[in-house]
Amino acid sequence: MNQMPKDQLEAVILKFGDTTEVLHKAAIHHLRKSGKRTRAKLTFAAAQKFSSTIPLIHVAAAVELLHEASVVHDDIQDRTAHRRGQATVWKKFGSNTALLLGDHLIAAAFRCLAASNCNAVALPRLIQAMAAATSRATSGQLQQLCLTPRGHMLRDQYMTLAKHKTGALLALPLQFAAVLAATDAKTEQFAQQSGEQLGVAYQILNDLQPLQDPATLAAHEDIVDRVVTAPVVAIAEYGSNHDVFAQLVGQPNARHRAVRHCRDWVRQALARARSNAACTPTPISSVVEQFIHKYLADLTGEAEYTDGMPMPPRVASQLAQA
């Protein structure tokens, strides 16, 4: 398996992500605190048969730059004040600077990919895959902003937005690995679909995190802003005319039922991820299984739900840092 050269990866991310112009301070502020580089690790692990290290570093860095752009933009819309132990870009430099930094990071991701020196057959496919993933992630974010907790197709709408918002960028490393392995378009599609279902499971678990502390749930930004998350969808499916956000905050039994539904949805998403991964080369399918085991497996069991702890602390910690 290719071992990710972290120092080299960070150097490439900084090279393309930094700018000597007016965004320099904001770029350095944001990029100096990296996450766990989950998407880069996925890229290296899934493309373990690809022996050209320098191109692979650039491909992995491009995925991370695109992810960083999404983080900067999401923080503006969610009004998130702190990330990775420091003030978010919009909080420190203002929303306009954060918006433009995110745009810059998207451009940087494509410049990084173009500079990867991948062969003339693979490079256009990589660029097309990343462009499509960018559009899907943008679409998913807007879908969530526009979603209301009403309607007969609410669960389907939520699953679609989760597949796009979170799944697009988790799927991209698997797609890249398929392209670098010179597979056909159908195999790349299976890789994409597997990654998207990992994203659905990942998003549902992320939505459950605020429920770990019912005492502070009412003040959580998702409740205050009335964001339609997985547990909100689960409660809304009962068809109650009552305020679903109030039920989530004030009714332990409703939270209990919502978490059980969400855990069922996680299991279903993981089954679909595995099914699609089975149609990809072994490195990709193995990485999917490893990802499930590391980040998501604790939620596939039937452990009894305790109000205030809807997911094991290990999972919550991993998700927060990924």
Structure commentary:
With 322 residues, this protein is mainly alpha-helical. The chain is 70% helix and 1% strand. The chain contains 17 helices and 2 strands. It has a two-stranded antiparallel sheet. β1 and β2 form a beta hairpin. The longest helix is centred in the N-terminal third of the chain and has 26 residues. About 3% of the residues have low confidence.
List keywords for this structure.
322 residues; mainly alpha; Farnesyl Diphosphate Synthase; 2 domains; two-stranded antiparallel ribbon; 17 helices; 70% helix; globular
Give the name of the CATH architecture of the largest domain: Orthogonal Bundle
What number of domains?
Answer: 2
Helix and strand composition category: mainly alpha
* Global shape: globular
Report the helical percentage. Answer: over 70%
| Widest β-sheet, arrangement of strands | 1-2
CATH top level assignment of the largest domain: Mainly Alpha
The total of beta strands comes to 2
CATH superfamily (homologous) name of the largest domain = Farnesyl Diphosphate Synthase
Which regions contain 5 or more consecutive residues with pLDDT less than 50?
A: 300-305, 313-317
What is the element string, with H for helices and E for strands? HHHHEEHHHHHHHHHHHHH
Number of helices: 17
Biggest beta sheet summary: 2 strands, antiparallel
Oligomer status: single chain
Distance linking N and C termini: 21 Å
* Rg over CA atoms: 19 Å
Write down the CATH topology of the largest domain: Farnesyl Diphosphate Synthase
* Average pLDDT metric: 89
